[in-house]
Amino acid sequence: MSLALATGMADLGRTLREGGIPVALGDEIDAARVLARLPGADREEARSALRIALKIRRGDWALFDALLDAVLSRTDPNPVGPRPTASVDGRRSGRTATGARAEVEVEASEAAGEGSSPGYSPAALLRSKPFEACTASDLAAMESVLARLAARLATRRSRRLVPSRGRGVADLRRSLRRALSTGGEMLAFARRTRAVEETRLVFLVDTSGSMEANARFLLAFVLALGRTARSTEVFAFNTELVRLTGRLGAGGIAGTLERLAASVPDWSGGTRIGDCLARFVAEHHHRVDARTVVVVLSDGLDRGEPADLAEAMRAIAGRARRLLWLNPLLGDPRYEPTARGMAAALPFVDALLPAHDLASLEALVPRLSA
Amino acid sequence: MSPEIQGMLEALERNGYVADRAIATALFLASDLEKPLLVEGDAGVGKTEIAKVLARILGTELIRLQCYEGLDVATALYEWNYPRQMLRVRLSERDGPATSDTEAAIFGRDYLLERPLLRAITRPDRPPVLLVDEIDRADDGFEAFLLELLSDFQVTIPELGTVKAQHVPRVILTSNRTREIGDALRRRCLYLYVEHPDLAKEVRIIQLRVPEAGAELAGEIARFVQALRKRRLAKVPGVAETLDWAEALVRLDVRHLETEAVGATLGCLLKDRDDLTEVSRGGLAEPVADARGGNPP
Fold first, then answer.
1. What CATH topology corresponds to A136-152+198-369?
2. What topology does CATH give the domain B3-77+115-194?
3. Model-level pTM?
4. Complex ipTM, two decimals?
5. Which of A117, A144, A273, A336 has a 20 to 30 Å separation from A281 between CA atoms?
């Protein structure tokens, strides 16, 4: 492998990582090997080969293309490929390196926002608001209760068979092994039974202004669940949909919540539930399968089109094992689910449950593992 | 285009698979670098077909492992032939040799049933194509096991010892993304995302696979399906559905799309009740006319 190729690849890898596309060293090595193997490749061919070698997901293609073009124009006149080729387009010439970079950054951010809602407030204020009230000791006390609740989740029976005592179907392999010690006389069958498996959970948490007081509390619950149940996906939405799953973890619940408020755009802004859920369906539907319980945490006060919401709810309900809607407003006995958004979503929901205090969350747990 | 990729493209075509450059590039690179290829894409875009056609091109055996939840080593890798083992134990009991001899015998190769994964690494003559279909349906534990197999191409059977691959098989994994594939497995592979074909490609696929349809009907069918894919549907029809539909229309002696025939055979394309109602409600006359008129949908 030539030095130029190696440096070019390292540059590309770094640019992709900075741009938010996860690329590991092993992928870069694959990519370099691929390019070394295709010396005559033109730009389109190199692009296609790089997507294959770097394992770029379909949703990241637009962003990847923009970043790749940026790197290619930076390393002018040498493209990432080991040799310059005749068919590389001439667009790059005449641009300064910094100019090209700035332009591509705009393209990249546009690409990243592709498919998202136009945003309810035209300014889509990127407000970052600190969480108020609720002291650290409150949260700490809650944490242990929530963890206990979460531990009760692992109750679903898998189809995978594991050795068991006494019950289940005969396990011939183990039975025969045992029989050898008694001269081939099978005194008792060894048995296997279905394994107990964790529930898969997907949470969609509304962090809009009308939910602000509750969102924090609910997210704390979701975070506690995420620690026990391994496969828990968490999304926050208001006018945009943000996947939080990767950002949970390190630090206590309080610390994580601080970070989230800082990093989620438009935290406590308006809501477009339908658009956000439609986006979830379009981009993340593979995270929902027949083993997954999907929980929407929202008051259903939607500024968008109810038909969009209904459409998205239908799609989710069709894939998921259960679809639950937690509405903090249900804590008030006089509340009726007549808000336009709530009414549109209701036909597709398996259960509409209150979520205004710890007791209501406690009642939720058995439903999650059902 | 690089000559190697051009060559692969032509080989695919010769074997009845209308490919595009991305697919040809991925197949060539996977063979050349001896890496497994992970193929993702919507249902019905021809993922499984890629493995089949690769086996035809290489003139080698296709070994297929269909994944499902609860798939275990006994089904995927190997199993002992219990009835035979039992028989042997009984016989030796009567004749009376030492237990250790019996054990050595019944845990030998003769009593081993090879399942797809073991078969794939023990072919003596040439490397087979191993298709691990719908890996997303297997559980995480199986994925981890597969990862181990794909890195070393050897398996350890406690009673027999380690079996090492004679030839490293060409591995193709497919996924419908009903579950996200683990990062470790993804990194071990090259990655190909197959999209629905564009109009020109779909016409060629129909002509290649259902030649009775004729150029005009093939064009109309492809235009109709392409327009359908742009609508909001729960289950978007794939190439497999297009071909089913084309065959159905040919069976019914349809020469050109017409509202009545389309309405009667729409079930070949749309396999969801809500989709059917949705599409029928808007009336079929207009989309059929668009497809026949050749207007870009």
1. Rossmann fold (3.40.50)
2. Rossmann fold (3.40.50)
3. 0.65
4. 0.75
5. A336
